[in-house]
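Reader question, answered in our methods column.
A reader sent in the components of a multi-part assembly and asked whether the whole thing could be modeled at once rather than chain by chain. We filled in our standard form and ran it. Here is what they sent:
COMPLEX SIZE: three components
ENTRIES:
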Amino acid sequence: MESVDLSMTSAIKRAEKQKISDQRAAALRLKNNRLGMNIFQLSWIMAFVALIVVNWQLRFNYSQWPPAGVPPFDLFLPSAATLALLCSSVMVAQALKALRSGFAAAFLVKWRLAIGLGTLFMAIIVYEFLNVSDAAMATQYGNTFRLMTGFHFVHALAILAILCRVYQGARLGKYAGAEQDSWAVEGAAKLWHFVSFAWMLFYAVLYWIR
Amino acid sequence: MANNYGNRPSISPTTIVVAAVFLLVSVVGINWFTTFIPGIFPPQASAESKSVDELFFILMIVGGIVFFLIQGMLLISVIAFRARSGDTSDGPTHHGNMTLEIVWTIIPALVVIFLAVISFDVWNQNSAPKANVNMVNGGSIPINVIGARYAWTHTYETGRQTPDGDAIVINSGANLHTYIGQNVDLTLQTQDVIHSYWVPAMRVKQDLLPGDPLQGGRPTELRFTPIRIEGVEYPAEYPIVCAELCGDGHGRMRGAVIVYEDEAQFLEQFYEPAIHAILNPPADPVLRGELDIQNYICNSCHVLDSLGWTGATGPPLNGIADRAGERVPGQSAEEYIANSIWDSGAFRVPGYDQQMAAFGPNVVDAANVMTPEQLYAIVAYLCTQGEASDCDMENGVTAIPDAIMTVFAMDVDITFGMSDDARMDEAANAEDAEAAAESNAENDSA
Amino acid sequence: MATIAVPLGGQEARQEIETVRRPALSEYLRWSVDHKIIGVQYGVTALLFFIVGGALAMGIRLELWTPELDLMVSGAAYNSLFTMHGTIMIFLFIIPMWAAYGNFVVPLQLGAKDMAFPWLNAFAFWLIPPAGVVMLLGYFVSPAEAGWTSYPPLSTLFSGDGQTLWALGAHLLGLSSILGSINFIVTILNMRPPEMTIWRMPLLCWAVLATSIIAVMATPFLAGALTLLLLDRMTGTTFFDAAGGGDVLLWQNIFWFYSHPAVYIMVLPGMGVLSEVLAIHSRKPVFGYRMVGLSSMAIAIVGFTVWAHHMFTSLQPELRIPFMITTMIIAVPTGIKMFSWLGTIWGGKIRFTSAMLFALGFMSMFVIGGITGVMLAALPFDIHVHDTYFVVSHFHFVLFGGSVFAIYAALYHWFPKITGRMMDETLGRIHFVFTYFGFLITFFPMHIVGMLGMPRRVAVYDPAFTDFNRLISFAAFVLGFSTFIVLYNIVRSYFHGPIAGANPWRALTLEWATTSPPPPTNFHEDPIPYEDPYGYGTEAATAYIEAIDMAFDRRDPASAGAD
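And here is the structure of the entire assembly that came back:
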């Protein structure tokens, strides 16, 4: 008697499970993507931390930083670039919010703005990369600067390309407001926040911490 | 239902006997093994080696207890708790015991803290700076070690000077000379990659780290004090090896610590003769060259049977004088050899792709500084390495200085290194010549 | 009678059991997103590299038969032997081998239908063969010869193009490891059925979780270090060149910040395997399940604080002490595992299957590696034996006596699940005897030659050590031979082994609650895990196992024979 009861309960259970499994699959995919993205961010930021360690350890080979006879980097342009990147990151977040609220047109405008600001940031960084003084390049001050900005640039470029792809897709109406239907947008936004965060670390180490 | 659910683990009398025997064996075993400890170490040749070996003794006892405990439990388990044939039942459902788990967390923690404390103690004792290091004749002299692929070079800055005012630096090549009770304090520098200076008998080891030569490199320090070992005849010799991979000849990078019985023996057999040799080099440039060339690291890369060199990175020097005249068109044998030493990039022998280290009067590495006079002597020596030398052996005394003049526009003082008597003679001759010239001039003006 | 949930959908499977239904061999040679196919792809690739790495090791021992340079043309050629041996064994054998078992077993144990990111999973695997090829291509230029640690400036200013290829290959393998590990973490955290709570997870899953956390946090440092190495080699930067303001210790710091935790990446999954095998084959629950699971996490965390003990002879003296202390502390969680395993088999009913023999062999050998590990942490003693054969012996006790023994245990344990056929137990026992004694006699004497004064990585050595080295070489050849026994066993059993059935070991974890090999969807229906993954010895557990047998119409492997 007891065992019959048991098998019936489990049969009902099974049927229920079957019913909700399709909905659950989509939700699970989103959950996986989000967790995977978070772990990737946590993991890959360590590569940037490794370069900060490089910068720090090499400083100890010099009695002062920047090394004697090397003028410190100019602050104005990089700070402007940092501001542009931060605004870009905010724009990306705003755009995602707009998409979630169903404002597709506002999404496109904000996303475009974010790409524009990001491009401005990268243009300034390229300019800075190319204009490191010879005196700085003769020391690790310039060497680590190019290493860190270059490493960051490669990531920023790749992720900016992803932002552009998302923009393209959005213009074709590929993404809807529901969370499950706009993972590409959310993922791209998270990657772009990662770029901003990594840059904030580098900005502090390269320009402010002496 | 015949089952053993909930049974406690049972231990049969056989198992208890096995356990007791094993306990006995392990106590005897640890004891017995410790008697081998001197046999698995090199001789205890330094004060440091005593404390390191004592530390190992403690580690061995603690490790031995853990080893026998775990292997013993394993052995007992596989004997006592094996499934008898035909027994298909499960073991007792025993999930753990909090007390036991806490015990085997805390006891190992206490043990490693104990080991850390005694290790720290030994470390403090061994690494503490010592007063009166490198004492020779009542004074402290710097002793330097230079590591270069693949040879060690030891130099003693004696603090004395030659009559010409040059500092006397003894170069004892791959061997470090010291004596019982001397607090040795070495300054280590590398010329290329990371090496590691290890004297197993002294239980000391230190890496040599590349640094910026313009800022004096990145010297590291190594300290030890040789002690007497009963029943050993002095001077005694202990190997030095390179412990950090440095390339092709890493295994060949060896040397020896030569320990003298006391300072007197050290002075008599090594120190004073070495200074005497520097003050009174042989008059013959070939003999001088034979001594000089051994002060450099040439042996690390070249084969030269006359001196027992076995290096393989660079071209062999056997019979070099037979080939030297034909290597570069327009260069005489003397010019070629001199040029290859000071300007190693000028000509690369086919089949050898590594450029030789830089030698010359102005190079950054102190160990590679080579005066024109030393070059002269070394070329003179290398000119004898061959059956039918291309060098102008008839006029060796003038041909080589001429070659150095041609290639590097440098004057060679050929009285360099002559014995004091010969030098006096030369000087007297020169004075005579000068006096003659002066008197001539006076005569002219008159 | 207690409630026994027997939820296994074996009805469909019942019709299929007469033959073993395996994927076609061609499935394994192409891109596939099935975690079981990928697992086998990882495993076979790793085994192939194991053979290459083993052959290189034989070359090393042949050269060391005499104290002079004879087999190899130069010291540099010998250096490339051990460089490639180390690199292949670490990056192309042990780490991918654990990815193999992790891929095959973890989703099954969790009751999941697949990994969280199947495509990423396949991508991570397919990075490995090209990376291996890139590394081996070094043999056509000038192979890497700076050791697997590749210390600059030897690896920058004094090495040929093979070193560049080495760094590129290692870069790809690092990327593969990160991607694979992200996948494992997400799978373990998200893909469990609701009944599989975190405290019901089999301990292999705990170990893989800890391993993956280490891999994602540490491997980016390797990427950073290799990037600098490549820049120094190819673009003329001077990060490691003292003449340009660089620092050679920079490499050592960043490299070991990855490579010490990498040791735990290599051994933690082995510890997970041990917990499985010991419990199942001695028919007793894992002693102190929670502590065993948590100690994996403790090892993972403390493992990040010990890296500089690899630099005891180069670090500034005052920085050495803290690393000595952390290194000693890491012995504690390792000890917890060791004692818990002893508690597991204590009082059990031990079956001496090949898997169990290797698991017991692991315990007996790993303890030696653990003891010498604490000895090496003791700074004054380490100064003496640093970079000697003592260290070579220590890490082989950990990585061969530990990881490889566990890999063998796992092979004998899960081969039936992977292929549907049992391995030959007699050959397995012969293999164990040769491996155990071959290993012990190869590596134990290395402690002594190291202490007596033989540095590692030398082709020519003091003739006083000749006898020791001959003994070691002889035993190493026996050890090398033992590998062929297991390779033969794998091939033979794959075709002719007795049919395994779903649950040949009568285990409670979920990977056994499905056909062998499992269908593409892993389970015919949603599986319900037993309330206690190792709760052997209760009526409920026995009933659960019998239910599995009934559902899949178990045939006794002994009577089934080869078909």
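What stands out: Chain B touches chain C through 89 residues (CB under 8 Å). Residues 1-7 of chain B have pLDDT under 50 and may be disordered.
Send us your own complexes using the same form.
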